[in-house]
Design brief:
Elements: H1 2-22, E1 25-29, H2 36-51, E2 55-59, H3 64-73, E3 81-87, H4 89-96, E4 111-127, E5 141-143, H5 150-161, E6 171-173, H6 177-186, E7 191-196, H7 201-212, E8 217-220, H8 227-235, E9 240-245, E10 256-268, H9 273-285, H10 287-291, H11 317-323
Parallel strand pairs: 1-2, 1-3, 5-6, 5-7
Antiparallel strand pairs: 3-10, 4-7, 4-8, 4-10, 9-10
Helix pairs in contact: 2-9, 5-8, 6-7, 9-11
Length: 325
Amino acid sequence: MHKTYLTAALALLSLSGVAAAQKPRVVIATGGIGGVYYYYGTVMAEILSKYAGVDATAIQTAASVDNILLVTEKSDPSRNTYYCGMILPESGLLAYTGQLDRFKDKPATKLRTLFATYPNYLQIVTTKGTGTVLQNLAGKRISLGAPGSGTEIEANLVLQAAKIPLTQFSKVERLGANESAQALADGTIDAYFWSGGLPTGSIAELSQTLARKGKQIDFIAVPQKGPIAGAFEKAFPGLADVRTLDKKVYGSARSVQTLAFWNSFSCSSEMPADLAYNITKATFEHLPELTASVQSAKDTTVANALRLSISKVPYHEGALKFFKK
C-alpha cells in the first residue's frame, strides 16, 4: 500500500515538473530606472505572472533599440522563452524597415505590436533662463539620452530637422534618465533630451532639487507650426503629433508644445497566437492594477490599443483576436 502511494506521488511530482517546465517564460525589456518604461514593464511582469499563465520578469535596458533587438533576436520558441518590450513607434518603424544603422543588414521584420500603451512626450529639459527654442542651446552642454535608446534617435532626428549639427554644442553626453537629471542638477550639463510619459519620476525629482537651489525647471518648445513638427509628421505620418506639456506637471516656468508618440508594447512574430492573446487579455482585464502604480497607464485602454495600426509594423494576430472578439 505504502509503495503504491509513493509511486503515485512520484508520478504526480513528475507531471507537475513537466507542467512547470512547459510554462512560458516572458522577459519584458523596459528602460532605465527613473523612466516610465521601467516602472510600467515591472508592473506588467507582475500582472502577467499572476494572470497570463506565464513566468514573467522585467529587465532594465537602454530602451527602444535594445528592446527591439531583444524581442526579435532573443525570443526562442525551442526554450519556450519570449521577449516583450516597450518601444517608441518611430524607432520600431525605422528598425522594421531597415533604416536604422543597427538594422540595415537585418531589418527587424519579426517585430509585432501587441497594443499601444500611452503617449511619450519629448521633454527637452533645462532651467529657466537658458532659452525657449532649440537654437538657444548652441554652445551649451547637452545629453541626447542613453546609447541605443529611442530618446537618442528622437533627439538626433529633432536636431536634424532643426538643422542644428552636434558641433554647435560645447559638450554632448549620452546619459539615461536618472543620469541626465543628476547632471543637470549638478550643473555639468545645461539641457537634456528625454522621451517619456507624464510625469517622469526623475524629472519630477529634478524639479524639486532645482527648487531647493533657487532655480526653476523649464523646457524647450517644439511648436505645432514649425519645421520640426512638420518634418516628423512627414516622416512618421499618424505616429507623431504635437501636444502641450502643461507647467503644472513639473511646476515648470511655462507650458510648452512638444512632440508626442504613442508607445508600443511589442513582441516577436514567433510568439504563439494563444500566448499573445493571453498576455493581451490579462493586461486589459486587470488595468486597475497597472494604473494604480503607473500614472501614464491611464491611457492604456481598449479604445487606444489599436492607435498604431497606421504603422508598417503589424499587430500580432493573437492580440488582434482579443480586440476583435
